[in-house]
Amino acid sequence: MTTTSLKLLLTPFVVLSLMSMFSASVLAGDWSNLSKKNQTRLGLYMTAEDAYKHTMANMGKTLFVDIRTPSELNYLGVVTVMDAHVPLVFMDSTAWNDKKHRYKRAKNNNFVSDIDAALKKKGLGKDDTVILMCRSGNRSAQAANMLADAGYTKVYNVVDGYEGSKAKDVPNKGKRTVNGWKNSGLPWTYTLDRDYMYFTR
């Protein structure tokens, strides 16, 4: 066997090894300054960048779920590595939240069973990795706790979400221009794939 052919054989092995090393490093981050709203009982977290790299390296063993509302996906776009869209809540256009100056949200009562179905469809179990992403990491933390209560053991919260955190300084103060999927330059599209979208029953 020539040196060149040996290198060609080793290349996939090296790539897989590096991916495994990355996956292990994602699990051990310093999340001590994480907002309480984004914390979960399982204590498993990823940034949007971590989630993308982990999913690409472990596609067959990871369920990546976008839990934003259908409207959010429709107008703000979707990630290209999503396995399923399962909203945690829906916008209720019949009620108004005076405190938050927006429509109230209605709970998706089928959330856990819908995640169960998505997991089963991919041939995975409750001990496999599930990654949840919302707008900014708050709803996905709530969803992670619901799944933990249902027996899931490896549910990761994407702490900066799809749109990221609000900037604290001018000129973008109050706008979501810090971190997150979109601000990190990760792949997304406005084109929705019907097969991955959520339809109410």
What does it look like?
This protein has 201 residues and is of the alpha/beta class. 34% of the residues lie in helices and 18% in strands. It folds into 2 domains: 1-30; 31-196, Rhodanese-like domain (Oxidized Rhodanese, domain 1). The protein has a 5-stranded parallel sheet. Strands 3-9 form a two-stranded antiparallel ribbon. Strands 5-6 form a two-stranded antiparallel ribbon. A hairpin with a 4-residue loop joins strand 5 and strand 6 (102-107). Helix 1 crosses helix 2 (48-57). The longest helix has 25 residues, at 3-27. It is globular. 30% of the residues are buried. The model is unreliable at 1-27 (pLDDT under 50).
Percent of residues in helices comes to 25-40%
**Structural class estimated from helices and strands:** alpha/beta
Task: Give me the side-by-side strand order of the main sheet.
Answer: 1-8-7-2-4
- The level 1 CATH classification of the largest domain is Alpha Beta
Low-confidence stretches: 1-27
* Strands, total number: 9
Give the overall silhouette: globular
What's the CATH H-level superfamily name of the largest domain? Answer: Rhodanese-like domain
| Order of helical and strand elements | HEHEHEEEEHEHEHE
Q: What fraction of the residues are assigned to beta strands by DSSP?
A: 15-25%
Number of domains: 2
Write the layout of secondary structure elements.
Elements: H1 3-27, E1 45-46, H2 48-57, E2 62-66, H3 70-76, E3 78-79, E4 84-85, E5 89-97, E6 102-107, H4 111-121, E7 129-133, H5 138-149, E8 155-158, H6 180-183, E9 188-189
Parallel strand pairs: 1-8, 2-4, 2-7, 7-8
Antiparallel strand pairs: 3-9, 5-6
